[in-house]
Design brief:
By secondary structure, the chain is mostly helical. It is 90% helix and 0% strand. It has a domain at 23-71. The protein has helices spanning 2-8, 10-41, 43-67. The longest helix is centred in the middle third of the chain and has 32 residues, at 10-41. The relative contact order is 0.12.
Length: 71
């Protein structure tokens, strides 16, 4: 982030942080889904659902942010 700010300004650093935040939601959602579904549903369903959650969370966050004009 320090390089983005020093080379391209504060707007670029803000974009880096926004992207990192969206990625962290996906990371947390993936592992939360795996932890909740692994024992009751099995490994294939748990990882399949977790992958779907990891792909859906950043898309939903980006959609909501653009709708609220914050992204």
């Amino acid at each position: 982030m320090g390089e983005a700010e020093s080379l391209q300004g504060a707007d670029s650093a803000f974009g880096v942080l926004r992207g990192l935040l969206l990625g962290l939601f996906a990371f947390a959602g993936f592992f939360l889904t795996v932890s909740l579904l692994l024992e009751p549903a099995g490994i294939a369903i748990a990882f399949g659902a977790a992958t779907a959650v990891a792909l859906a969370l950043p898309a939903a966050s980006l959609f909501a942010g653009r709708r609220l004009a914050i992204a």
